[in-house]
Amino acid sequence: MSAPIYLDNAATSHPKPESVYQATFDALRGGGNAGRGAHRASLSADRLIFSAREALAAFFGIADSSRLIFTPNATTAINTALFGLLKPGERVVTSCMEHNAVSRPLRRLADLGVEVVKVGADQSGRVDQQRLRHACLESPTRMLVLNHCSNVNGQLQDIEGLGGFCRERNILFLLDGSQSAGSFPLDIEAEKIDLYAAPGHKNLLGPAGTGLLYVRPGLQVEPLTYGGTGANSHSDQQPEMMPERFESGTQNMVGIAGWLAAVEYLQKQNPAELRIGLERHLRQIICGLQEIEGVRVYAADSLAHQGDAVSFTVEHIDPAQIGFRLDQDFGICVRVGLHCAPEAHRTLGTYPQGTVRVSPGIFTTDDEIQKLLSAVQIICLNKG
User: Fold this and answer.
1) Is 192 within 8 Å of 56 (Cβ atoms)?
2) Long-range contacts of 227-232, Cβ-Cβ distance < 8 Å, separation of 24 or more
3) Phi then psi for 357, rounded to 5 degrees?
4) How many H-runs (helices) and E-runs (strands) does the chain carry?
């Protein structure tokens, strides 16, 4: 049986560069626990994690790599930022396009007394920046939380100048880069972003179980997890120094090793060429689906703002049935449903049935896209 056509990179990227597989294998064989010993294996693990931290800091325009915290995923990073800073009685502004990684923690914080204000979006999922600014000025606001790129239809939000606006008004700006990191260039410090969360396993091409949280200098965040950090073991107090304050417990050295290899791979590529290739595939998907009778496409307002995810529905056919047919009959992997973003689907008009989501990666081929389009055409002709 031939290998499946993988078009679910918005969930996790596949395949990875060969160097990522090799780096994870080498790290697992090498042993050692970072910060837990002075022997050569432990020191080697220390150096590896430091190198990965430095590489990722450079990738995102972060001058002080100690402000970059390794987490198991973006969800943990977001929870750390939200629960570590927001207190009952404070106010946070967000949007209706957020993933549950933001919506659910904010719901819990609302139950605890934090005021949560949600700004709507247009039918393409675009959140008007002026509406965000206006919402922040309506009442004293502690934080603005925004999804940089939708995981449902790929709409990239306009953040230019938003960080400066927040900084001038002492409003913290938390950006969720889960679907944009690795696809769109970002200089965190130039954009004046106070907190930034991203996973390693999506467009950054690293292994699952990796993520990061950037915390700007001078910002005091309460840790989500307490425990051993390998240093200052004489004290029962959590250390103040970064990044140890937020990295209790054994690090995912194997995953971080793979992530370092992934970042090194990306740094050797031409970002403009990667983007051109991705846009070609996105255009092929969007235009091809729009030509099929009965198909409705949900995409960004322009190709320049189009992330890796494109959604579609077919008249009178349940998205789950389409996904099943694509997998079982054609060997094509896509994702169906609400994609952990029900409010985004309400905005797009696809709640409660959801959509079929297609998300190509940098290793996707034109032929694979064409096979998807042909398969959807057949499913539509056969009405499922």
Assistant:
1) no
2) 229/35, 230/34, 230/35, 230/36, 231/35
3) -110, 130
4) 11, 13
Strands (E), 106-159: 115-119, 143-147
Q: What pLDDT does residue 312 have?
A: 98
| Side chain identity at residue 104, one-letter code | R
Query: Using one digit for the tens of pLDDT, what is the confidence trace for 139-179?
Result: 999 999 999 999 999 999 999 999 999 999 999 999 999 99
Q: Where are the domains of the chain?
A: 5-16+271-381, 18-268
> What's this model's pTM, rounded to 2 decimal places?
0.96
Fold category of 18-268 in CATH: Aspartate Aminotransferase; domain 2 (3.40.640)
Q: Give residue 283's identity as a one-letter amino acid code.
A: R
Query: What is the Cα–Cα distance from 28 to 305, expressed in whole angstroms?
Result: 39
Burial 194-221 (b: 16+ CB within 10 A, else e): bbbbbbbbbbbbbbbbbbbbbbbeeeeb
Cα–Cα dist 248/229, whole Å? 5
Homologous superfamily, domain 5-16+271-381: Aspartate Aminotransferase, domain 1 (3.90.1150.10)
The shares of helix, strand and coil residues in the chain, as percent rounded to the nearest 5, are 40, 15, 45
Task: Give the sign of the dihedral formed by CA 213, CA 216, CA 218, CA 220.
Answer: negative
Exposed/middle/buried for residue 41 (C-beta within 10 Å: 0-12, 13-18, 19+): middle
Q: Is 191 exposed, middle or buried (0-12, 13-18, 19+ CB in 10 A)?
A: middle
